[in-house]
Amino acid sequence: MQIRTLLAGTALAALLAGCAAGPTDQAAAPAMEATTANYQGTLPCRNCDGIDLNVTLNGEEQSADEERTFDLEASYRGHPQNPPDENYAGNWEVLEGTEQDPTATVYELTPDGEGQTYYFLRVDEQTLELIDPNLRRFQNSEMLQLRRM
Description:
Blueprint: H1 2-21, E1 36-43, E2 50-58, E3 69-77, E4 86-96, E5 105-111, E6 118-124, E7 127-131, E8 145-148
Antiparallel strand pairs: 1-2, 1-8, 2-3, 3-4, 4-5, 5-6, 6-7, 7-8
């Protein structure tokens, strides 16, 4: 039994030493792929049939701030004044915790230039939910959810 443990430990040490050395040829290192997640949904609207929202998040939670970008498109359906579609681009940050759940993950989308900052609670891997700037959920929270496409 002790010999097996010694052999396993030696093999593990050799494996870790090989990993620590890293690739010797830069071309041999695999390129990191950009991660893109697209979420869509229709939010309620007082004066129209709904607001179609399309949010594209580029980057990952672990990415550097400047690598996390977003595009947000909002279209008003059946609005009496026919407002133009709204398009925003900027960076997103990861915030931790809400009033109800200190372990929750919240994405803060801050547009470049003018525009409002959006806050989305990550309900699960497939669902984001619009929440208020104080990181609180709205009463009609299920109507404010976007699904990953």
